[in-house]
Amino acid sequence: MKIKIARYVSEATTQEKNVEYEVDLNDITLLELLNEIKTKQDATLSYSSGCRSSICGSCSMRVNGREVLACAYKVQDGDFIEPMKNSYIIRDLVVDMDKAYEFNTKAKAWQKALVKDVSLSEQNQNINELQSDCILCGSCYSVCPVYAVNSEFLGPFALTRVWRYVSDKRESEPQSKIDIIQTNGVWDCTLCNECTLVCPQGISSKADIEKLRMRSVASGYSDPSFASSFGSFDGSPSF
Amino acid sequence: MRSDVLIIGAGGAGLVAAINAHENGAKVRVINKEYPTRSQTSMAQGGINAAFGNASEDNVEAHVQNTLKSAHGIANEEAVRHLCESAPDAVEWLDSIGVCFSRTKDAKIAQRTLGGASAPRACYAQDYTGLKILHTLYDRCNALGIEIVSERFLLNLVIQRPDKADAYIGGATFLNIRSGEVETYEAASVIVATGGYSRIYDKHSTNSTSSTGDGQAACIRAGARLSDMEFIQFHPTALKGSSILISESARGAGGYLLNSKGERFTNELAPRDEVARAINEEIQKGENVFLDIRHLGEEFIDRELPQERKLAKLYENIDPVYEIIPIKPVAHYTMGGIEVDENSRTKIKGLYAVGECANHRVHGANRLGGNSLLELVVFGKQAGANAAEYAKTFDKEIDTSKQSQSDKNFVVGVKHFTNQIDFYEKRTFIGNIFYNNAGISRDDMGLKAVLAAIRQIQREIPFMGPKDKTKTYNTNLVEFIEFGNMVELCEIVLVCAISRHESRGAHYRNDIPKQNDIAYKAHTITYKEDSVLCADFVE
User: How many CB atoms lie within 10 A of CB B171?
Assistant: First the structure.
């Protein structure tokens, strides 16, 4: 099988070249294929990987323009492999995730204080069971179109993480979490649903953002873009 | 770049230590070779043991006795008691910071049975227990503003050796993987939390490709001791082709092990060493071995074992709801590691170790499922607090220049190695000969043959080296240094395994199948003197 990989030089994020590799293997994951190339053909090819079982989130990249985990994707003849978007490309398929991870801190995605003796039912657990499956692979961050216009958008995974804590019975101050996500947060999302489609864990950040919007509205916030576009509207006809 | 406490590794042990060092007033810096949520801890599925008795009657004493029994006489009973008695508090602490554990109908933390346990004792979060613990710890570190530096590869510890006084730690050197530069971080105390070394078995391991024993290798080079390195746990059920783990909870829930004739041949819930050996014997007889969970039903499998179903489909084209899963035992956990005392201290002042890389003498010759996540919380807390305490009164000089220069020279020099021998081929070769001769079943002749091969490879290392000469993000270079660390540890594992003329737990000698308490109820201690490897048995 033949595949093509976008190789990038390190100093700039300009593309160096697309390199074609031919490997005599079939029915394997993309990660197995990359390992084959690295160990047998071209030791200079750079990519990240770890657990091989879709849980560490290291090997996210794009195939034919779509975000995948290399260890969870069965590679096909003719596939085109590229690094993730919206992050600085360090080399080849490796991007710098520091900025993306930083949004967890900016969104204050954690439980405000330690709590003891809060009893959680199965129902309470079900509320954020899926959201706490997030592996921080960054696929949603790569596919999100909002970064084209707002590089400070808190982004899909960080907002899902906020919902994971806001919805948790153990969070003593959920309102403080809602306050933080009003700027560069829930209202900047276009609800395009791309994040949902690429998530390897089946999480819908779009749905979580909608839930956060409802909580925001319930606590007195409103969509700022909606408010501003009708800002001069006082109810009287303007003709 | 100085901190009070420097923590190397951002898995569960490192992050728990960081939180506790921070809470004890220290300025903490965590450095890791990946990112803080990508460590081996994320892969732990089964659970974390604590004798709550939420699912049925249980008590701390039973937890202690199960752990000691599985350890085959070489666990430290006091350490085990401390571990088990601290377990309920440890899990309650995780619950208090927001870990999303599965719950029972009466709103308690759900528990299930793992091998070797007399009661359902493992608290779990579906089969994502490690993932959810690790990510919540990471969030807690963010809440506390703890500095985490990513993609820095540990090269060496910086040891200060004053005349007529004890050696002490002064920091560590790292390869900045992104820039290719050597960086030196000074610290009053250092906690090594770098994980295990199961990847010496290469593809015959459930572990992340990062479990290359970097911390153990750096510690023995620096003058610390390693202990019980021959004790390596083989997990009974990994997918046959890819060595991907199928959690013990599959057997805990009632899964069967079958041979090619469809017969059960062992007690599926015996400790891991026994089950792994039973499977290995079937395989030696020419049988294929399968895990059968079909009778558990689709609903149960999707609720409790969703990862297993996904991975079996992906790697083996098998749907466990309808088909039996081909499996084999592979290297999973390294009981041995950096020798520490009851306060997580190594031989070197200010140097601590915790988690899988350390040997707190709680697992002995065979670890119980559910005790490793527990260990990293209980001892991570202790190591963090002690390292912070030590740093408070630290007032000595630190001079890192010598180590720093030596490692800079190495990183430049290694690119001039001749590359006549491919180290990736040798890595695969070592994995194979280790699996077949220094794995589940060992004998004197096989071990010695592997040792001869390893010593030959040590001599050949200058003829290997990275093919990639680039500075930026050179994973070929990183993998070569990891390979060097593994080769260093391979020799130690073999010397220990050859010296131990008995069978005990995970160390099974088919030429000497009996346990010999008179001669070997002791720990194997290894260290280097003038770069020569030495081994002793110490009680």
Answer: 26
What is the pLDDT at residue A117?
A: 85
Specify whether the CB–CB gap between B134 and A135 falls below 8 A. no
CB pairs under 8 A between A and B: 154
A8 in Cβ contact with A14 (< 8 Å)? yes
Interface of A with B in 43-82 (CB under 8 A): 43-44, 46-58, 72, 74
Q: Quote the DSSP letter at residue A39.
A: I
Distances (CA, A) of A233 to A222, A226, A229, A237: 16, 11, 9, 9
Rounded CA separation B12/B24 (Å): 18
Task: Specify the 3-state DSSP secondary structure of A121.
Answer: coil
Q: Assess whether pLDDT exceeds 90 at residue B376.
A: yes
B272 annotated active-site? yes
Displacement of CA B353 from its chain's centroid (Å): 12
Distance CA A165, CA A171 (A): 6
Q: Which residue of A has its CA nearest to B104?
A: A122
Q: Which residue among B121, B251, B272, B504 is the active-site one?
A: B272
Separation CA B38–CA B148 (nearest Å): 13
* Tally of CB atoms within 10 A around B221: 16
Chain A: nearest CA to B533, how far in angstroms? 31
Q: Judge: A121–B103 Cβ closer than 8 Å, yes or no.
A: yes
For residue range B248-299, list pLDDT tens digits in order: 888 988 999 999 999 999 999 888 899 999 999 999 999 999 999 999 999 9
What mean pLDDT comes out for the span B22-40? Answer: 97
Q: In chain B, which residue's Cα lies nearest the Cα of A158?
A: B139
| CB spacing of A52 vs B208 below 8 angstroms | yes
Buried b (16+ CB within 10 A) or exposed e, B313-352: ebbbebebbebbbebbbbbbbbbbbbbbeeebbbbbbbbb
In chain A, residues 160-199 whose CB comes closer than 8 Å to chain B = 161, 164-165, 168, 170-171
Contact across the interface for B92 and A52, Cβ inside 8 Å: no
| ipTM (interface predicted TM) | 0.95
- Our CA-based measurement puts residue B106 at a distance from the nearest CA of chain A, in whole angstroms, of 7
